[in-house]
Amino acid sequence: MSAFDEQFQQSSLAVHRHERRGGGSLSTRLIRLHSPAHAVVDPPTRELVLGLMVDGHAGARWAWDGAKANVTPARRPGTLGLTPIGASGTFEVDSASTILIVSLPYPALAAQLEPDLRVPRDFGSLHDAYQDRPGTRALCRRLWRVAGRPGFARHETIDALSEAVLVSLADEAQVETVQGLSSQERRRVQARAERPDADVAALAEAAAMPVRSFRRRFQAAFGEPPHRWLAGRRIARARHLLQENRLSLSETALDLGFASQAHFTEAFRRAVGVTPGRFRRDIRG
Fold first, then answer.
1. Which helix (H) or strand (E) holds 219?
2. How far apart, in whole angstroms, are the C-alpha atoms of residue 136 and residue 17?
3. pLDDT band at 115 (very low <50, low <70, confident <90, very high)
4. 3-state helix/strand/coil string of 71-129
5. Closest CA to 62 of 21, 91, 94, 104
């Protein structure tokens, strides 16, 4: 029995109706799980685990290492989720569903594919949400069918399909990394942006990349230049502080990181159309 099989057997999911398959020289494991609403805590694994919704329209939440990763109100059949390697987490489904769980032996597959193909360990933004990936989805379903066939030839096919799944994910992750920011980079950038002294250089440093590369990748990830995004966040926070009416205008400017109240007033007027003082008076009525 593989480590993944043992982990599943010891989890609360094992009591629900399920069918297990597997094979190949690399020991790819698959489980088709039919379950009502449930919640489960998964220990860390060195394998790459995918969850494919086969049937049902279940809302799903999952998190790992204490950070909320996803809330999907209506997870539809065909969407696919990916769990980070080496992360422990919790997983909840709020109604009956059928899920195909695919556990890929990541270390063995990556070693077999490299150096011809660079296989990332961190699949970046592919972790962010359940996504519709038709190519990977079709490969996972074919893996399930092949694993149920008799004969030794199926083991070679399982190995080949397992490699194809990993290559498909790696290609997608490479494209997303080049075009945008990974989920970890996004979180670091957004956390750094909360500080009053945040500027583009500081955000690039938080993302651990040169400013020029950061500007290009930020634009792809957020749909606007980083300086405009920062300005928008600062004005949104200014609105909030002015509505709370706890700070004077000069204190608000300082809290937001503006060099002076005059600088704050001009930036706010350009963005909103009125001065901060007028905005506050209008809010008071």
1. helix 211-222
2. 25
3. low
4. EEEEECCCCEEEECCCCCEEEEECCCEEEEEEEECHHHHHHHHCCCCCCCCCCHHHHCC
5. 91
Other CB atoms within a 10 A radius of the CB of residue 27 amount to 20
Q: What pLDDT is stored for residue 74 in this prediction? A: 43
**Residue owning tokens 């209008």:** 282
Q: For the residues 126-136, what does the mean pLDDT come to?
A: 66
Instruction: Give, as one character, the DSSP assignment of residue 50.
Output: E
Coil, helix or strand at residue 70: strand
What are the Cα distances from residue 221, in Å, to 68, 106, 133, 228?
20, 27, 19, 14
pLDDT exceeds 50 at position 71:
no
Task: Copy the structure tokens of residue 126.
Answer: 């592919």
CA pair distance 100, 5, nearest whole angstrom: 14
Rounded to 10 degrees, what is the CA torsion of 269, 272, 275, 281?
A: 180
The answer to whether the beta carbons of residues 140 and 80 sit under 8 Å apart is yes
Q: Judge if the upstream peptide bond of residue 120 is cis by omega within 30 degrees of 0.
A: no
Average pLDDT over residues 182-209: 89
> How many angstroms separate the CA atoms of 57 and 208, rounded?
39
